[in-house]
Amino acid sequence: MHIQRIALIGAGQMGFGFLTRLLATGFKVHVFDVSEAAMDRAVAIGAGRCETMACAVRAAQAVITMLPTARVVEQAYLDDGGIRANLTEGQLCIEMSTIDPELSIRIGGAVAAGGGEFLDAPVSGGTAKAFEGKLAVMVGGSSAALERGLPVLEAIGSSIIHVGPIGSGTAAKLANNLVASAAMLATAEAFHLGTSYGIDAGTLTTILENSSGDTWILRNLHPVPGVRPDAPSSRGYAPGFSTTLAIGMLESIRTAAGAKRIPLTVVPALLQAWQLAADHGYADKDFASVYEFIRPQSRTRAVDPLNEGREC
């Protein structure tokens, strides 16, 4: 069955980017979001409004979810009045949030039991790429389900990679985000170190770009204000991916690793850094704001942020 009608559950920053691409590609989209402002913004560009999740699901041939946390995703699919309870035979559910693989597998089983098909298809590339339709999409699920959903995914992403069975798309996204998060914190600390010795941030950027310290984070989400005009750091750390979302993502990595009994060394340090940043007023800022948090100038007295109370 050719998909024409889509329910979008979650019209926040990334979801709204999806919506613009889906509408531009010719899909009819009904939206449900707990935020009235998000709903109003979606309707203003041509989406249909649904006051309940059940309404949105029943109006669609495919359901896309883009939600902030694993807990919210779980509730959206499995609670009474949610997606699973309102599925019709043959509906395709595409879960594009950042959750953990075990939850993807559980939700996929529930959707299959209800007669639907399921893909876990998280994305990478940030909000700007979402509006351009140039995201990387990592897909877990059957080849048949992917074939049905491919026109939808191609409206959103320029790189669609079939990773394997349900759960593998989510696992790939978490692996990617672990590396990206480590690169962000390492970059923030590197620039704090370099500039403290008088190195200009632009000069240090050029050095890293031409050395082994070059990363995607450095080139696209530079944590130092003013180096990359389009980066969140140069826009007051307006969130593309907030500190709170980073914490949730890292918790999902820890959950996934725990399910496979994989010991982690980097993730606990990353969690500690961003949790402390959140506790000190950076929860709703972009996760690149960890740079501002670790700089002693940003606090009333210089302390080591990962060993609070010990003066530097």
Describe this structure in words.
The chain is of the alpha/beta class and 312 residues long. It is 49% helix and 13% strand. The protein is built from 13 helices and nine strands. The protein has helices at 13-25, 36-44, 53-58, 70-78, 101-113, 126-132, 143-156, 168-196, 201-209, 216-220, 243-259, 266-282, 290-294, and strands spanning 5-9, 28-32, 48-49, 62-65, 92-95, 117-120, 123-124, 135-140, 157-164. It has a six-stranded parallel beta sheet with strand order 3-2-1-4-5-6, with helices on both faces. The longest helix has 29 residues, at 168-196. It is globular, with a radius of gyration of 20 Å. The termini are far apart. The relative contact order is 0.09. Residues 299-303 have low confidence and may be disordered.
**Roughly how many Å apart are the termini?**
63 Å
| Content-based structural category | alpha/beta
Helix and strand element order: EHEHEHEHEHEEHEHEHHHHHH
Taking pLDDT < 50 over at least 5 consecutive residues as the criterion, the unreliable ranges are 299-303
Instruction: Report on the biggest sheet.
Output: 6 strands, parallel
Number of helices: 13
Using the alpha-carbon principal axes, give the shape: globular
Strand content: 5-15%
Percent helix range? 40-55%
**What's the gyration radius in Å?**
20 Å
Care to count the β-strands? 9
Q: Strands of the biggest beta sheet: in what spatial order?
A: 3-2-1-4-5-6
- Output mean pLDDT: 93
> Which assembly state applies to the chains in this document?
single chain
